[in-house]
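User: structure tokens for this one?
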Amino acid sequence: MKTGSPFLHSIIGCEEKFDRSRYPFNIPAFSAGINIQLDKRVTFLVGENGSGKSTLLEALAECCGFNPEGGNRDHHRASFAERSELAQALSLSWFPKTTEGFFLRAESFFNFATYIEGVSDLRAYGGKSLHRQSHGESFLALFENRFEQGFYILDEPEAALSPQRQLTFMSIIRQLEAPGDAQFLIATHSPILLAYPDAKIISFDDGAIREIQYQETDHYQLTKGFLESPERYFKWLFDEG
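Assistant:
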């Protein structure tokens, strides 16, 4: 089913299920609750490590029926009761609902590739073992051969991608989302990926979840400042004056 708008429209935290004395509900970004509106087919989550963006993506993957370690609905937690506490505290608004998609975690991609080696003839992944390719090549093999229609949750996909391959990845995203076939929710530190046109960027820094513009992100400002005057950063980093 194609749609011109996003599949998933909102992620709302059920406040009565938030015990703020315990992790992960005591993460500063969750202090005002969770109310994320997804009105674009590509949304990026940004924030420092530990800000909560990856924690939210994992819980969201559970809500979608994806394997929280990475994968699709072929290996999911079947019952609501088996979900994490955060996953049980989230309410999702879909229109239309899709069951197709994938949760990709850069840190657990090796385990996923090992699983694929055991259950697939690899034709669905370009016909070549994912372990016999570089990390970046295997990532792109997954993107190019398995990403079709659906909702895709990606946690730091740039971890294995060179700048050039990040551009290739952006092209793949465009091919899927422009016709309305796919929606992407991506946690990233990459200033290249964040520049994707007409995407929404949501920050988890400063104890709040809020929308920001590309030029407001630390990723853009730091990268721009460093490239314009690296020596200024070296003086600060190396205490040279």
